[in-house]
Amino acid sequence: MIKVVFFAGLREQLGCAELTIPSVHITTINALKLVLVELNPHWQVYFENKALLSAVNHDMVDGEHPIKSGDEVAFFPPVTGG
Predict the structure, then answer these.
(1) Range of the domain at 16
(2) pLDDT at position 23, please?
(3) Are 4 and 75 in contact (CB under 8 A)?
(4) Residue 24 is part of a domain; what is its CATH number?
(5) How far apart are the first and last CA of the chain?
(6) Quick one: pLDDT at residue 82?
(7) E strands, the chain, where?
(8) What is the pTM of this model?
(9) For residue 82, is it within any domain?
(10) Residues paired with residue 28 on neighbouring β-strands, in sequence order
(11) Distant-in-sequence, close-in-space partners of 76: CB < 8 Å, separation ≥ 6
(12) How far apart are CA 40 and CA 4, in angstroms?
């Protein structure tokens, strides 16, 4: 199982703080995004956003980063500030 958490404005936009996905056939962040959109088609616009950030086990990663059962994957919008 892969624990998926959503932070900041993304959490409100999706209406979901976290969920757990079976890890079968999910090997990368990009593959996980595809599964999330298959389960929730109205999320597609958010996961197509190139600025969306992701982390695996608290380390920032890109879409090709491998994931496995037991990982925690976080998605959040880019952080801005001044």
Answers:
(1) 2-76
(2) 87
(3) yes
(4) 3.10.20.30
(5) 38
(6) 52
(7) 2-6, 18-21, 53-56, 59-61, 72-76
(8) 0.91
(9) no
(10) 66
(11) 6, 7, 8, 10, 52, 53, 54, 55
(12) 14
Dihedral sign computed on CA atoms, order 40, 63, 6, 2: positive
Per-residue pLDDT of the chain (82 residues; tens, 9 = 90+): 999 999 998 999 999 999 999 988 899 999 999 999 999 999 999 999 889 999 999 999 999 999 999 999 999 988 765 5
What total number of domains does the chain contain?
1
Give the strand pairing for 72-76 and 2-6.
parallel
Task: Report CA torsion sign: 28, 16, 79, 69.
Answer: negative
Q: What are phi and psi of 73, to 5 degrees?
A: -115, 130
Is residue 43 within 8 Å of 14, Cβ to Cβ? Answer: yes
Reading the block at residue 31, the tokens are 């593959």
Instruction: Give the CA dihedral 5, 10, 16, 22, nearest 10 degrees.
Output: -40
